Amino acid sequence: MKRLILLILSFVSLRIAVSQSIIVNPDGTHSTIFHNGNTSTIVNPNGTHSPVFHNGNISTVVNPNGTHSTIFHNGNTSTMVNPNGTTSTIFHNGNISTVVNSNGTQSTIFHNGNNPLQKTNQNNANASAEPTDSVKLTKRDSLSISDAGKQLKSSKRKAKRGKEPKRE
Predict the structure, then answer these.
(1) CATH of 20-131, one of 3.90.75, 2.40.128, 3.30.390, 1.10.287
(2) Quick check: pTM over 0.90?
(3) Which of 82, 84, 97, 124 could serve as a FRET partner for 91 with CA atoms 20 to 30 Å apart?
(4) What is the rounded average pLDDT of the residues 18-42?
(5) Where are the domains of the chain?
(6) Mind listing the pLDDT tens digit for each residue in 128-147?
């Protein structure tokens, strides 16, 4: 009986471990992300929580102080609009994502493979044989969100006409 209880607890623990990601913050502290369907919860180093709501290619982060950050996902690159209007760029590469903040600092996110954003990106890639449209944002050559939207619409129009969108 004790072995059965231990075995059941082991499976429950494994299931819980599969639904986590770790963020290594620029200052060396760690945050944990718990994924559950279309919502995630970030547990910050100081113990506060930030819920994240995923809806298609847009996620909304509710910061502990009540402000909101919005993340626009587009293939392997996401753009986060911070509450103060600055932007951060998130580069996804397999189970590791790199966040380049507006001040140049970086955070690294280690995903466990159960990240809702990865599933969204995989579904988008599997749904169409067309190349994924992406707008490359760097600190040196950044675009505003409206400019990025215009560039994305332009590349989609060209793709409909059979022209290959210009990649930078």
Answers:
(1) 2.40.128
(2) no
(3) 84
(4) 88
(5) 20-131
(6) 333 333 333 333 333 334 44
Task: Band the pLDDT of 166: cuts 50, 70, 90.
Answer: low
pLDDT-based confidence at residue 89 (cuts at 50, 70, 90): very high
Question: b vs e for 23-34, b when ≥16 Cβ sit within 10 Å of the residue's Cβ?
Answer: beeeeeeebebe
Most confidently modeled of 13-17, 105-109, 116-120, 127-131?
Answer: 105-109
The two three-digit tokens of residue 157, written as one number: 């129009």
Q: Give 32-38 contacts, CB < 8 A, sequence gap 24+.
A: 33/109, 35/114, 35/115, 35/116, 37/116, 38/116
Dmax over Cα atoms in the chain, in whole Å?
67
Reported for 109-113, long-range contacts at CB under 8 A and 24+ positions apart, including other chains, are 109/21, 109/22, 109/23, 109/24, 109/33, 110/21, 110/22, 110/23, 110/24, 111/21, 112/17, 112/18, 112/19, 112/20, 112/21, 113/18
- The first and second tokens of residue 6, run together, are 């231990």
State whether residue 103 is helix, strand or coil.
Answer: coil
Chain-centroid distance of CA 115 in Å reads 8
Tokens of 13: 């623990």
